């Protein structure tokens, strides 16, 4: 497993080096470069928008008319590794007060995609969409920060 992960990281590093480092030209960049250059990036899985801001704020919202929301803060313990503590909510539904989640993300290099406007099925437009492979390693209840 460790050899496979090392090979994957080496391959991604080579792709990153070959692709350039400027967010505006659609090149492959790291999430850290995206934050440094643009100040934000948003991951999208065809249902939820996960937004990371340079100032450490985090939000997750559904692209549709109903779904789970998260509002909180992120920290990082190394390249591509982000930890979030966020309040859980719900659009168009009841939400429990003071319900927090701790979420652990691994985010690989990616590229910014063109914005997509809102439409009748997706009322939230896609902006600063960072197309990257990512893993939510863990999501569990957390005490309030």
Describe the model.
By secondary structure, this protein is α+β, with helices and mostly antiparallel strands. It is built from two helices and seven strands, in the order ααβββββββ. The protein has a seven-stranded antiparallel sheet. A hairpin with a 2-residue loop joins strand 4 (67-78) and strand 5 (81-91). The N and C termini lie far apart (34 Å). Residues 4-22 have low confidence and may be disordered.
Summarize this, please?
By secondary structure, the protein is an alpha+beta fold.
Topology:
Blueprint: H1 2-19, H2 31-38, E1 40-44, E2 48-53, E3 57-62, E4 67-78, E5 81-91, E6 100-112, E7 130-142
Antiparallel strand pairs: 1-2, 2-3, 3-4, 4-5, 5-6, 6-7
Mean pLDDT: 84
How are the strands of the largest sheet arranged?
1-2-3-4-5-6-7
Number of helical elements:
2
Q: What level of helicity do the residues show?
A: 10-25%
Beta-strand segment tally: 7
- Largest sheet, if any? 7 strands, antiparallel
Strand content: over 45%
Q: Rounded to an integer, what's the Rg over CA atoms?
A: 16 Å
Q: H/E order of the elements?
A: HHEEEEEEE
The outline comes out as globular
N/C terminus separation: 34 Å
Structural class: alpha+beta
Low-confidence stretches: 4-22
Please give a handful of descriptors for the protein shown.
seven-stranded antiparallel beta sheet; globular; alpha+beta; 46% strand; 145 residues; 2 helices
């Amino acid at each position: 497993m460790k050899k496979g992960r090392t090979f994957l990281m080496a391959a991604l590093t080579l792709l990153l080096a070959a692709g350039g480092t400027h967010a505006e030209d659609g090149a492959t960049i790291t999430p850290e470069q995206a934050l440094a250059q643009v100040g934000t990036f948003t991951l999208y899985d065809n249902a939820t928008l996960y937004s990371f801001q340079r100032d450490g704020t985090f939000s997750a919202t559904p692209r549709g008319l109903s779904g789970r929301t998260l509002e909180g803060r992120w920290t990082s313990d190394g390249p591509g590794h982000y930890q979030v503590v966020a309040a859980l909510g719900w659009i168009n539904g009841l939400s429990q007060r003071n319900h927090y989640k701790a979420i652990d993300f691994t985010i690989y290099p990616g590229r910014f995609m063109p914005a997509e406007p809102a439409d009748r099925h997706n009322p939230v437009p896609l902006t600063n969409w960072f197309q990257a492979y990512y893993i939510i390693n863990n999501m569990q209840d957390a005490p309030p920060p």
